[in-house]
Amino acid sequence: MMSPQGAATTNNGTTPKGNNLRSPESSHPRRGEKGLYEWLIFGAAIWTGTACSILSKVLYETTDEEGHKFDKPIAQTLAMFLAMILGVPIHWVVIYWKLPFPGYDRFRIEPSKEERVNSTPVDFDRTPRRGCHKEVTNDEEMEGLLSPRSEHDDSRIPIWTYFYLFVPAAFDCVATVLCAIGLLYLDVSIYQLLRGSGIIFVAILRHYYLGEHSFLFQWTGVGWNVLSVLLVGMAALLASSHSNKSNLEDAVIGVTFMLAGTMVQSMMFVFEEKVMSVDEDKVPPLLLFGMEGVWGTLITIFFLYPIGYFAYGNDRGSFEDPWSTWEMLKSTPSIQLLMFLYCLSIFIYNLFAVLVTFSLSSVWHSILDNFRPMTVWVTDLVLYYSLATNTFGEPWTAYSWIQLGGLFILVYGTMIYNAPDAGSIKLRGEWYSFGLDFSDEYHDIQAQRRFSTMGSYPSLQRFLRSRSRHECDPRIFMSMREIPSPKIHYGSLKEQHSI
Hints:
The chain has 20 helices and one strand. With 499 residues, the protein is mainly α. It has one domain (55-498).
């Protein structure tokens, strides 16, 4: 079976050495590009994620007829996973009807007879140096230009994949519970800003786990994110200590649970990027979060709920009693409506969030969590000052200025990390750069992107790297890209060299 990286097979069935050595960004044609498609997905994820956070907090503060609050973090976790299960039947519908959906091209495009013609690949590293004219195989043409499903690429998903996705479900389950517990002790805006620390853990994990090289300006952006998290945590602690000792202890507990949950969630982000874009048997996005919902539901029912029931707490002597949860749902229409809206927003958010990871990267998934506090905070303030009861939302306090400063630093660090793309902040020695100049790194990234555009084929990219610019002028390859069929035209070039 041909690997998704497009490594062509030789006549004897072996794979040329090095053909599958590709970075995660190059394994998907759209990854790293930020056009209208990516920004629409990103914006939809921000607003649906904002709805999730607000509805979650409103659910916690909603009371039943007896005045009991719906403080049910495990119930919300179960509702989240139940909503995510919808991804599995939608995945089957997309495959059966061959519907266009991101990540499903190999299930939709059938190879033609011409695409099934076997051709012997040429390893550019071992080809004699006769200028820059090399034969490009049909396999590499299909990967670099069309990316259809090869005859060797089995569109069926291995059965073990369904069990393998237990890993991100476990990460998601643990992270959701930890963050939900932290939300019990914190305001929702503090909760969201602390989740901004995810970019710290994601950057480190991508560097050491996925082998992604990080530039110095990116680590600088991560450092600013660290500072923003410290400021936000300090704002929560100061606001609580100004009130009473009990609130101070609650803030410490909330911040601790939030940071722990964010770290586990970052592990899930990186794992999702790996299985969707790096591994040979890539997992489609809908199946990914759908199976996370299946496994997460089982984990919650058979593991988390028994622990919550037998652990001591204020819910009829338990940390969370599932029977009291069921009674509150049956007897309180407002909780039923909020739970339905919460499940709907959770499904839509997880769909767009997985597409963000698939189309861009796990770092952008964590950046998504960094941008959501702006909309969450604005919504919180509007709710508090627009509702007559002042029951929901968050008021402006003296320590909110520290929180606001942390928010600006968080956005500043994220825009530094996103350079040199549009909308980012490039540190080139200006006053806001604090003496830092990373112009050379920005130039290197842009040069690599131009180079990647010229060399659409794996062995051609390695050939370009091994030759100096005097030996192979990139302008030659720019002209070659206009040739419609490398298989035909490069064959004639080879015959000319052999004469």
